[in-house]
Amino acid sequence: MFTGAVAGVAFVTGVVVTMVMSAQARALTPGTEVAAQLERLNVALIAMFAVLLACGVGLGIIVRYAVLKPVDQLTEQVRAVAAGDFDHAIHVDRPAELAELSSHIDSMRDRIVSAWRVATDQTEELRRSNGELEQFAYVASHDLQEPLRKVASFTQMLEQRYSPQLDERAKQYIHYAVDGAKRMQMLINDLLDFSRVGRVTGEKSVVDAGEALNIALENLSATIEDTGTTVTRDDLPKVKGNRLQLTQLFQNLIENAVKFRSEEPPRIHIGARRSGGTWEFSCADNGIGVDSKYADRIFLIFQRLHPRDVYPGTGIGLALCRKIVEYHGGQLWLDRDTQGGVDGRGATFRWTLPAAGDDDE
């Protein structure tokens, strides 16, 4: 617009100057031939100005319909898509450059819409799967638990009543049946705990990690006393999380360290250090340790590195710990860089949790 205004002013100024100069030339009373030549010059200038004016008008029309109008069409179509009409196709016929640009934009729109619809379908499928998981949790906590309790209790009653009539092999079979029922109950309870993470617990809030550790130690007081375990710790900070799940996290890691102890009395240290916007916690022990080649396998559900008769359990503890940490937005891993845990022996597990705000701290 600025360039067009300057061109128009220059054009009008040229016309005015030419007319003034022509009038001044006539006032000099030149000869007949000179006057005729001036008349022809005026006609030529007027014709030239007319041609320039026509070219300017034509160029404006061309720019308006060949450039500005397609750009407006493309803009309106993009605005329609941005406003939520994702099925609106974007297309401009001309010029070729805008047509190619609109084709690229429409291809991008189509890919985004396809990905969005796939994500919507997956979200719906996930919602349905969660509903089925809740139904399974209900069945597991009620319908499956009761038959197992009956199998265990009536089998034990059978042994008590008919014990004089049973030989050692029959008693051994009864023991296997009772043990299998109890292990099935443990598996079901562990699966329920695993499925509940992030679904049926309370909201996240500012939690004192030290208090969560105190509750975990109180829950394990009998085990700690029987095994002569010594637990030391750093000053633990406040974090953002769920108090019940963080207590379960500390409890599972400490219980795991006590279970896989060496011949010496267990020694466990809980540490914490700040790392940017998160706190990095650690649980180091002086137990039997973990071979680095199994560093990923131990976090898989129901994965065991030792026979059940040597170290009891279902093999879900570390998988549950990782799920709790990931639910809080952190990571849990086996430290492969340090030389063992306490006193250069055992293992060290590390995990991160989001730090509470400075005002909360």
Automatic annotation (TrEMBL):
<dbReference type="InterPro" id="IPR003594">
    <property type="entry name" value="HATPase_dom"/>
</dbReference>
<dbReference type="Pfam" id="PF00672">
    <property type="entry name" value="HAMP"/>
</dbReference>
<protein>
    <recommendedName>
        <fullName>histidine kinase</fullName>
        <ecNumber>2.7.13.3</ecNumber>
    </recommendedName>
</protein>
<keyword id="KW-0418">Kinase</keyword>
<keyword id="KW-0808">Transferase</keyword>
<keyword id="KW-0472">Membrane</keyword>
<dbReference type="GO" id="GO:0005886">
    <property type="term" value="C:plasma membrane"/>
</dbReference>
<feature type="domain" description="HAMP">
    <location>
        <begin position="65"/>
        <end position="117"/>
    </location>
</feature>
<keyword id="KW-1133">Transmembrane helix</keyword>
<dbReference type="InterPro" id="IPR052162">
    <property type="entry name" value="Sensor_kinase/Photoreceptor"/>
</dbReference>
<feature type="transmembrane region" description="Helical">
    <location>
        <begin position="43"/>
        <end position="67"/>
    </location>
</feature>
<dbReference type="Pfam" id="PF00512">
    <property type="entry name" value="HisKA"/>
</dbReference>
<dbReference type="Pfam" id="PF02518">
    <property type="entry name" value="HATPase_c"/>
</dbReference>
<keyword id="KW-0812">Transmembrane</keyword>
<keyword id="KW-0902">Two-component regulatory system</keyword>
<dbReference type="InterPro" id="IPR036097">
    <property type="entry name" value="HisK_dim/P_sf"/>
</dbReference>
<dbReference type="GO" id="GO:0000155">
    <property type="term" value="F:phosphorelay sensor kinase activity"/>
</dbReference>
<dbReference type="InterPro" id="IPR004358">
    <property type="entry name" value="Sig_transdc_His_kin-like_C"/>
</dbReference>
<dbReference type="InterPro" id="IPR003661">
    <property type="entry name" value="HisK_dim/P_dom"/>
</dbReference>
<feature type="domain" description="Histidine kinase">
    <location>
        <begin position="139"/>
        <end position="357"/>
    </location>
</feature>
<dbReference type="InterPro" id="IPR005467">
    <property type="entry name" value="His_kinase_dom"/>
</dbReference>
<keyword id="KW-0597">Phosphoprotein</keyword>
<dbReference type="InterPro" id="IPR003660">
    <property type="entry name" value="HAMP_dom"/>
</dbReference>
<dbReference type="InterPro" id="IPR036890">
    <property type="entry name" value="HATPase_C_sf"/>
</dbReference>
